[in-house]
Every structure is written in C-alpha cells, then in structure tokens.
Amino acid sequence: MSDVKLRLLEAREAHLFAELQVCFDTIAKYNVDKSLKNKLLCKACIVEGNYSEFKDIVHQIQELKMSADPEYVPSFDKLSSYNDLLGCVRLSARRLEATPSTKELPSLPEQPKLPVLDLPYFDGNLQNWTLFYETFNSLIHASKVLSNEQKIHYLVSRLKGSALSVCAGIPAVGSNYDTIWKSLVERIKGPVSIIH
What we know:
mainly alpha, DUF1759, about 65% helix, 7 helices
C-alpha cells in the first residue's frame, strides 16, 4: 500500500515540477517574444497555487521513505530547486504586472529580437556534457549581446535532474550567473578529466 502511495506521490511531484519548469522556460521565451506576457502570467499564477501542494508532497515522500528504511536520510534538494525556480517566476511575474502594456508605452526604438535557440538539455550525465558545454558556451555564455539575466534564464531552463542541483540555494538571478556557470563547469570538469 505504501509503495503504491509513494509511486503516486513521486509521479505527482514530477508533474508539478514539470509544470514549473515549463513556466520557467516561458520566461526565456518571453525575452524573445513579448506576446507571451499573458501566457506567462497565467502559468505563473498556476505554479504559485501549486507550491503548498508540492511542499506537502515532498514531506510525505520523505516520511514514507523514512518509514520504509530507518537508515534513510531525508533530502529536500527537490524542494530547494523548486524554490529557486519559483522565486525567478515570482520575480518575473511581479515585473510583468508592474510593466504597462505596449499600448500605454511611448514608442521606443525596438530592440532586435533574439532567435529562439534550441539548446540541448544537460541532466548531469557526463556523456551529454561536451555537446551541452560547447553549444551553451558558444551561443550563450560567450555572447556579448545577452545580459546575465537572459543567460541565467537560458542556463537554468536547460538543466535537469542532478545538474539542476548546482543552483540549489543560489537565487537564479543575473548577478549570480557567473557563480552558477562556474560551479557547474567545475563540478563536471573533475569527472570528465578522470574519464579522459
């Protein structure tokens, strides 16, 4: 019975995290396509409403695992990652709500639109590192056009699984971009050099 409940809770946890990831990815898309404002605000409202359920599910999963195995050490890394992404979503939503619609703005010279980039995901698997690193480094990290705010959105939106834990505890904001990027590169550098 508890195994079924655990699997069900883990599936719901994954679903809620995926919804948040989609919302977070929409922030990067919004930086390129301003017509996504309403869609982003709608998604932000949904994931905001999911927060207490996600937190409760994480606690229930940890309790079930501890009940099944007294030696189990509880881990709240997923909750930390969720908090980091949700913090970025909240900040972006607040900024968007405070920004008047384009109809109310005086006409300003339009900034060039950035292309939508189909960057590979990195999930912590070392076999995927070289492709991710080379692509991200050349298109995003070395870019003189993108701000650190845009770079951090691109970076965090392309990390999954254990790779995303590099961001745990560090707010995913532009001022922390260099710290998060260096942490990711240094974390992977060691194992990759051992393999080669």
